[in-house]
Amino acid sequence: MEIIGGRDEQVGRFRVRRSLPTRVRRTVGAWCFADHMGPAEVTEEHGLDVGPHPHIGLQTVTWLRAGEVLHRDSLGSEQRIAPGQLNLMTAGRGVAHAEERTGRYRGPVHGIQLWAAQPEATRHGDPAFEHHAELPRVEVDGAVATVLVGELAGATSPARADTPIVGAELALHDASTVPLRPEFEHGLVVLEGSVLVDGEPLVPGALGFLVSGRAELALQPQGSAVVMLLGGVPFGEKLLMWWNFVARTRDEIDAAHGSWVQDDGRFGTVASTLPRIEGRPPFWQQPTS
Predict the structure, then answer these.
(1) Full-prediction pTM beyond 0.85?
(2) Which of 58, 152, 260, 269 could form a disulfide with 246 if both were Cys (CB 3.0 to 4.6 A apart)?
């Protein structure tokens, strides 16, 4: 296992631990983004509070360990998400959304948001949104696995996947051996506690990266632990990521950013009371001193 340090970022009013992408590792399969948020408190004054913003070429996967968040998007979706449920939004050629307080929940929010890059075959397609109130769970030798996307240990998620990937939460109560697909590379993000992988400790804030070729993975929690397992066939297409856009060229990002700034209808309208996030121009458009 290669341990890759992440960094802290600000998303809305929350500080998050971003373990993907980094300069060392841009993707794990098609997974190209992982933000571990909280635990942080939602109060009467503030919550996650991420105003309307655009996306292209990716799928957002939102999973909570605690709390509630309200999703609104330009497709007209308005969906509360709670622990054990999954929100998955497919951006395709363009969509906008906001992540807000529900207006009724007060207390801790803890979870992770993931992005999966869409392949050439689907990235210009229609945007879509899906909510799954229940996901398959399976006992895996010392752990309970909840399969968010893809398949693990015979359990298959109903969520859309545009490439061969897996995303699963592992709630570890003892030493566990998890089956893997050898053709996948894998990443581990610790959400709670710590775990030994190949004798190396892995804690929140870092990414444990595993190259393809493994048929199983031995995990030793230090007490109890919760780990997110991400995996997929190495993504063979060139990616260019900037802000909330996953594209292939600067021209694509310039066009998307221009559409958002000009509000030309490409990304639609989100029925949110939060202010719209404008976003800075790409760095290559900014004058150099």
Answers:
(1) yes
(2) 58
